[in-house]
Amino acid sequence: xxxxxxxxxxxxxxxxxxxxxxxxxxxxxxxxxxxxxxxxxxxxxxxxxxxxxxxxxxxxxxxxxxxxxxxxxxxxxxxxxxxxxxxxxxxxxxxxxxxxxxxxxxxxxxxxxxxxxxxxxxxxxxxxxxxxxxxxxxxxxxxxxxxxxxxxxxxxxxxxxxxxxxxxxxxxxxxxxxxxxxxxxxxxxxxxxxxxxxxxxxxxxxxxxxxxxxxxxxxxxxxxxxxxxxxxxxxxxxxxxxxxxxxxxxxxxxxxxxxxxxxxxxxxxxxxxxxxxxxxxxxxxxxxxxxxxxxxxxxxxxxxxxxxxxxxxxxxxxxxxxxxxxxxxxxxxxxxxxxxxxxxxxxxxxxxxxxxxxxxxxxxxxxxxxxxxxxxxxxxxxxxxxxxxxxxxxxxxxxxxxxxxxxxxxxxxxxxxxxxxxxxxxxxxxxxxxxxxxxxxxxxxxxxxxxxxxxxxxxxxxxxxxxxxxxxxxxxxxxxxxxxxxxxxxxxxxxxxxxxxxxxxxxxxxxxxxxxxxx
Length: 519
Description:
The strands form 4 sheets. Strands 1, 2, 3, 4, 5 and 6 form a 6-stranded mixed beta sheet that branches. The chain has a 5-stranded mixed beta sheet with strand order 8-10-11-13-12. It is built from 14 helices and 18 strands. 39% of the residues lie in helices and 23% in strands. The chain is elongated, with a radius of gyration of 33 Å.
């Protein structure tokens, strides 16, 4: 038997739906002696995964199904004793937060329909628990935001590196031409020092944007942590207890030692600052399988990981702070106490190493950071430090010809000046097409190509390939504010190619030039 359709009123609205079958009311047992047809309808309602409730005009519960009892965490009888715990808008769908007796917060999607119930006006409510969907949407938004911030940070750092290259190089050239110990020489040195500080900040931004080039090696996590303990204890002070819990598994990872140290220092400093009155910091290591739960909007991950956990007994974080802590320049500290790049650097290093970072924290209950880095099964291979200890500029009496390709006029001029000071005859080009013309003019007399990775007219790779076609053995130095771009280009070109990351000083430039020409 079909129920009649709601009658349309003169104003075009529908009359409230009048329920025409017996259902379980809020204070009624789940089973009674209703006819089979009514019992079938009752079963459909009871087994519906969505919560269904009927609420009277005084916000009193008149009926609910089993799903509603599960959603609210109360029996129908318990719900009957108090006003219905949600308010809603009669038009359309509402998304509301529900607090359960066990302390859980649930997000519900609520739809309301007007009806008659036992001769009185009432509302039929359909409630769907959308907490998981909302959580996943929030994780996706967070992942997209972090990706966008990474692109922004990388772009800003790239442009700033070009500016810093001009500042650092000009100041170094000026200092070298001033009397040693003079006031002007000291001022030039201060400019260099300030530019180097700014360069460190751009490197942190590039680390966050996953574009920092570092020399990775196989590391024993426990050994590296043990070697850093004295430094970490000095950082936290005597008012904080320092505890370590190291796994006997001796997990190994593939990462630059300086990057691992940077992660530990930043996390420990963050923990220290959360415990102004003292407390305890615990660093533990373990070997875990991918948890699939990163907390930063990333996809589930599998495999075996070396886990470092840094736990403190400090003030903890609220939800808003926890959602923003890895963003560049976000900080809860005063401007004099932090740049807001510490945790952003941690995030960038870990993600660049194909790892995952997760944070658990509650206000007043401390914080724990979990760093999961992929296990590395190869034996430890020590990496020799080939950095020259001297800062003196190499010199050469040999007359050599260099081509400098750079669209930024100031950088092109400064690089040319440095090369001329060291015995090179220099030709310049502001774009790739002009560079090819100069290469063909010079022929075998060309001794060196110094080029930015991105130049107008031709890509850096196209330019290098064209030069290699004309002169297969010519040494090449590629410059870039993005270290990974220079590295990728060097690999693609093969042969004698050196990478020079901006910003650089005259010493850095000439060290790479002499290195690639003597290879």
